[in-house]
Amino acid sequence: MAQTYLPTLKQLQYLVALHDSGHFGRAAEACFVTQSTLSAGIRELETLIGVVLVERTRRVVRFTPLGERIVEKARRVLREADELGDLARAAGRPLSGEMRMSVIPTIAPFLLPRILPRLRRDYPDLKLFLREETSGQACESLNHGRTDCVLLALPYACGDVEAAPLFDDALFVAFPRGEIAPAPPQIRPEDIDATRLLMLEDGHCLKDHALAACNRPELRAEATMLGTSLHTMVQMVDNGLGVTMLPQMAIDAGILDHTDVEARPLDAANAARTIALVWRKASPREKDFRLLADVLAVTG
């Protein structure tokens, strides 16, 4: 019988990393190997299967059509291999071993300082590796197997996932102190000056949640989309440049401390986002994720 030579997982990891980065040096850094090691590994893979997967020029890394198809297959193989380890971990103690979690920027700085001390105390065998990514990036990482679960805000289309809602996070309107005098207990969407509204730039789901809650289509056209973080937005409001929307968790975490910015709840039917933990359907670590969700819900 002829001997069959199969690609190694390491070779597939190199190939996927090169596809994601489009650059041999960055792919090597992501795989924690030298550039020559990664390049040699991909050449060995091409020799093994007898076809060219990557066209190499001095400036551009371009995958052949077959290379693109093999990358997609490689992603599935790597994810399945990763889940073999998940099966073994799921059979052991709850919330132990390594876990990779992506967290969106409008949650990470406000919720993580509250939840991480409790996780370290109650589950010392859990090694939680965190990635801060926008919702789209986080869901892509989840679907490609680069991360195990995502802490994000719903509603958001994240693919074929399971979701455990944790708690609702109300939306507030933040404005320079004295700009709205007297400031009412709540602010209606129709009272927001669209020309003064500052919002996070594209890629942040909080912007979409806030605009959907206001139900004013003209706000999307007239609002200024330039903030890269909620802390930046608050600084702009503090300097009299406009008004913005903030989630309650940011206010509770003290984002308005030492500023002249006031905030009032948004008076609208859907003036809240739902914080949730999501993971891939049929994951062998579902029990771990649901236990983690219970911990996060209590802490939140």
TrEMBL record:
Residues 7-64 form the HTH lysR-type domain. The keyword Manganese does not apply. It comes from the Bacteria. Pfam families: HTH_1, LysR_substrate. Keywords: DNA-binding, Transcription, Transcription regulation. InterPro entries: LysR_HTH_N, LysR_subst-bd, WH-like_DNA-bd_sf, WH_DNA-bd_sf. CDD domains: PBP2_OxyR. Belongs to the LysR transcriptional regulatory family. This is Hydrogen peroxide-inducible genes activator. It comes from Sphingomonas rustica.
